[in-house]
Protein: DUF3347 domain-containing protein
Organism: marine sediment metagenome
Amino acid sequence: LAGKPSMMNPEGGKINTGHDHGGMDMGEQNPAASMKPDDHSLYTMINEPSGENISQQFKTQLTKVFDQYINLKNALVKADAQKVAKFARKILYSLEKVDMELLKGDAHMVWMNQWENLKTDGEKIAESDNIDFQRKIFNLG
């Protein structure tokens, strides 16, 4: 994906994948330092300092969505339209299991917006067997 906009990262740009080299200088800029305060991607929402107010239960539920997202992305890379549709359906199922009542204030509003976008794009991808269309929706999300 090379930092391009996608369903889970609409603004694009580099995100921290959780893989950490223990503070080693790998010649790359710290991605957290380049994030804008108004960046409302899902990743930013749960990992910014104010993310301390987001319950672990919500983060666990959202991790299941992320896991299916990675599976979908890998199926797109392999150009397997059937698996892409399958993982889009799994994303939709995982989204339904996320309890937005666990979020308060701004985080709740951000999640409602992200949820609607993910649901709409997920439905379009799940209903298609055309890999080019699936990729287009994934990249536009």
